[in-house]
Design a protein that fits this description.
This protein is α/β, with parallel strands linked by helices. The chain is about 50% helix and about 15% strand.
């Protein structure tokens, strides 16, 4: 059965790095949710303004459509998406049990330091507090600490997938 893995967590937790490595390991396509934001959202974040639920709605619906399209075609996939709130995860999942969430977790200080070190992203480190404030930790997700090498994170996810599919 085709499966969608949604790598979730606050900005800077490593969703893209883990997603690319997981894609390489599993041979599944990887989609970075950041690539699906409308330009208005990107501009807003680049100005240091956090997104609200209305801003996120069309973005989440686009990602849900991508997930549904790929699963309906029998294709497993990996999607990086912050999915900070339970309501966002419900939109992404759309009632499909084959959509699984992996929550990449880390301390504010660790993630803030990572964000300060990157210069090529529109999401500003100063906005991290708003992400932590919005985060509703998932109840039904694999939770993976990010204070380990990416390869160890990927191996842990793969072991979990093998045990649950």
């Amino acid at each position: 059965m085709a499966t969608a893995i949604v790598l979730m967590g606050v900005s800077g937790c490593g969703k893209t790095s883990v997603g690319e490595a997981l894609s390489e390991k599993l041979g599944w396509p990887f989609y970075d949710g950041d690539d699906f934001h409308p330009q208005a959202n990107i501009s807003k974040m680049a100005q240091g303004v956090p997104l609200d639920d209305d801003d996120r709605q069309p973005w989440l619906e686009r990602l849900h459509a991508l997930i549904a399209e790929q699963l309906d075609a029998g294709q497993s996939l990996i999607v990086a998406c912050s999915a900070l709130k339970e309501s966002y995860r419900q939109i992404l999942q759309g009632g499909r049990e084959e959509v699984k969430f992996v929550h990449l977790t880390g301390s504010f200080d660790l993630i803030f330091a990572r964000m300060k070190a990157r210069s090529d992203h529109y999401m500003k480190a100063e906005m991290l507090q708003s992400q932590f404030a919005d985060l509703e930790p998932p109840r039904n997700a694999l939770s993976v600490p990010i204070d380990q090498p990416v390869i160890a994170i990927v191996e842990g996810i793969c072991e979990h997938i093998a045990a649950t599919l």
